[in-house]
Amino acid sequence: MRIRICSNPNRPWLLLVIGAVFSGCHPGNEEARRLRGACETGDAAACNTFGQKLLTGEYVLRDDGDAAVKFTKACDGGVGEGCARVGVLYQTGRGVTRDSARAFALFRQACDGGAMAGCTRLGLLYRQGAGVTQDLARAAALFEQACTGGDLTGCAQLGTFYAVGEGLSQDVARAAGLFQRACDGKVATGCLGLGRLHAAGTGVAQNDSLATKLFEQACNAREPAGCFHLGNQYETGKGIAADFGRAAQLYREACEDRHGEACYRLAGMYEKGAGVWRQPERAAQMTRRACEYGYAEACPKPKGS
Prior knowledge:
Structural class: mainly alpha
Number of helices: 16
Number of strands: 0
C-alpha cells in the first residue's frame, strides 16, 4: 500500500518521504488527471489542453504520439486550436508520420474554425510555397486575419511583409508597430524584426543599444536569427562592448539551430583565431555546414566564375 503525504509536517524525518511523493500531491498532477478523465469522456477542450501537457511533459510523462491523438480528438470535436496543434506535428513528423498535405488541411480547418494560429501557419506555407503554390498576397491576407484575431505571431509575420514590401506595399512604420506589439507579447520574431529596424535606423530611430537588447530577447526565446544578430553586435561592438568569445558562442548556438550565416561567421572566427583557438580544419567544417544550411556565400563557386 502506497502512503501519500500531502501535508507539511514539522517532523524533519518525514522530509524524504515528502520529497518522494510530493509530485503526486501537486495540484498540477491533480489537474492532469482531471483533464485526462474529461478527455476520455468526450470533452474536446480538455483533450486539447491535456494534449499540450503531454507535448511538454507538464506533470505527465511526455508522449508526442499520445499528444497527437488528443489533439486529433479535440480537432474532431470542433476545437480549432487542436487542429492547428496536430497540424504542426504532421508538419514536423513529431509523434506521427510526417505528412505535409495533412498538415495543410489541418491548418486550413483550424483557420476556418476561428483558430488564428492556424491562419498564421497556413500563411507561412503560402509564403514558403511549402506543399502549395507560393502566393505572397494570400500569405499576407492570412497574416492580417491572424493578427486582427489576436495571434501575435501573425502580427510579427505581417510586420515582416510590411518591412520589405512582400505581398503588399512597403510600410516600415506599420512594420515597426506590428513588431512592437508582437515583441511586447513575448513573440521572438517580433523582437527580432524590431531589433533589425533599430539597428538599421529604418522606420524608427537608429539605436544600437536598443537593437542589442531586442536581439537578446529574441535569442533568449531560442530564435536562431536573434542569436546570430546578437553575436554580430558582440563581434562589431555595436551597442555593447566587443567580445569575440561571446560572439563565437552565440554564432555556435545559432549554427546548431541551422542558421547558415552564423556557421559562416563562426568559420571566419576559427580561421582568424578570434575569440576561439585558430583551427583551419574546424573553419572548413563550419563553412561546409553553412552551405548545407542554405547560405549560398559559403558554397564552392563554379569554376570560371
